[in-house]
Amino acid sequence: MAHAQAFKLALLQFAIGLDPAENLRKAQASAEAAIKSGAQVLCLPELFRTPYFCQREDAPLFDLAETIPGPTTEAFSEICRQHNVAAIVPVFERRAPGLYHNSAAVIDAGGALLGVYRKMHIPDDPGYYEKYYFTPGDLGFRVFETRFGKVGVLICWDQWFPEAARLAALQGATVLCYPTAIGWNPKDRRSMAALEQLDAWRTIQRAHAIANGVYVAAVNRFGLESPLAGGLARLHQLGTPAPAQPANPEEGLLFWGSSFIADPFGAILEEGPDDAPVNLLAVIDPRRMEEVRRNWPFLRDRRIDAYAGLNERYRD
Description:
Blueprint: E1 7-13, H1 20-36, E2 41-43, H2 71-83, E3 86-96, E4 99-107, E5 113-118, E6 124-125, E7 128-129, H3 130-133, E8 142-145, E9 150-153, H4 162-169, E10 175-179, E11 183-184, H5 192-212, E12 215-219, E13 222-225, H6 232-237, E14 253-256, E15 260-262, E16 268-271, E17 278-284, H7 286-295, H8 298-301
Helix pairs in contact: 1-2, 4-5
């Protein structure tokens, strides 16, 4: 029996500026460069149109949201149509008045919108006040059958939960793609605690690859981003020049880049720097999945009759 075909995945890592229109242009340029290098499926970082606004709770920042379909998905639908590629396109989704999601649209080769994944696990920590902005996803853990292969899409905080990876893998995903926005406190960048955090982030995702016999790809932004001043989002949304807001090197988040692609046994195939733009490309080959799963048959040996307790918060 023939195996599914291999395809080339590209992760687009870049720094995010204050202007959403310029961020979109940067993403389009990165996509065009990756396509010239042979990419067939593109994956962009979480919330790439804007600075990471969740560092503070500020109602005017909801103005940054857009609908799906909307300007961002339309721009990438055109790229997918012109170049016959698929794309995972994160969007701050305005679903209805007062109802917003941290989402990723999946666009197939030819430009058709395959569907949307809405982030399921929403953090609420200092500098990551996402529960203020985002309603938890209500579409479940989804796999999308692109023209090139089945792609599971999860977003950032979802990275830490083995249940999410497993449920996507059980739907036949060849690769789990994690658009991401994660970084350090600038003061702690070179501390042991920060380095341990980066290592844990990489390790947990490699573990998902190993436990499920799938490729795993995480794409992050890089660079220092200070909390956005109130009203800045509206100025940009309306196209009015916003006042300069230089980054304070002592506050905000220093996003650590370090995007990577791991194979089905956790080997790192490609990895980006922590402080520079890069397009990472790797071949996603179902034959490698078959080889790994034959030798490490975790799916065969799962005790699905004994896992009922996983639907409980905690057993006292």
